[in-house]
């Protein structure tokens, strides 16, 4: 069990992805760099996978070097956390403030990096 409240940093990205999702896997190096550059400044990331195969999910985590907390109910598009956030397409990063309030969503690459840098400079 992982508690979102206990996992919040100054800024937290809840990143919806899956091992079978090409665009998600293409975005993972950006997330790894973001985590490396900003974790010490207060960024936390929680990965929520829409996988259904635990072995493929764990293999993708290892291969892509995703060192932050990863969760999944292995229920594919029936992932309850994805339903709570009304996720329709992945990758889908949601940026939360320290209290868990949604600040922004669906930013990727340089746009995501710029937003995180802005938020952590306040």
UniProtKB/TrEMBL annotation:
One Pfam family here: Thioredoxin_8
Transmembrane segments: none
GO cellular component terms attached to this protein's record: cell envelope
SUPFAM superfamilies attached to this UniProt entry: Thioredoxin-like
Alphabetical UniProt keywords: Cytochrome c-type biogenesis, Disulfide bond, Redox-active center
Domain Thioredoxin: 1-122
Subcellular localization(s) per the UniProt record: Cell envelope
Keyword Cytoplasm attributed: no
Any single biological process term in GO: cytochrome complex assembly
Entry keyword Lipid metabolism: no
Main location: other
Protein name (database record): Thioredoxin domain-containing protein
Organism: Flavobacterium alvei
């Amino acid at each position: 069990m992982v508690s979102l409240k206990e996992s919040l940093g100054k800024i937290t990205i809840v990143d919806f992805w899956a091992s079978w999702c090409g665009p998600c896997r293409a975005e993972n190096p950006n997330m790894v760099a973001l985590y490396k550059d900003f974790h010490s400044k207060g960024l936390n990331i929680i990965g929520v996978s829409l996988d259904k195969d635990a072995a493929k999910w764990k293999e993708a985590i290892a291969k892509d070097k995703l060192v932050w907390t990863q969760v999944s109910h292995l229920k594919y598009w029936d992932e309850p956390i994805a339903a709570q956030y009304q996720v329709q397409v992945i990758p889908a990063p949601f940026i939360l403030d320290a209290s868990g309030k949604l600040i922004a969503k669906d930013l990727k690459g340089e746009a995501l990096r710029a937003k995180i840098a802005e938020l952590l400079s306040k």
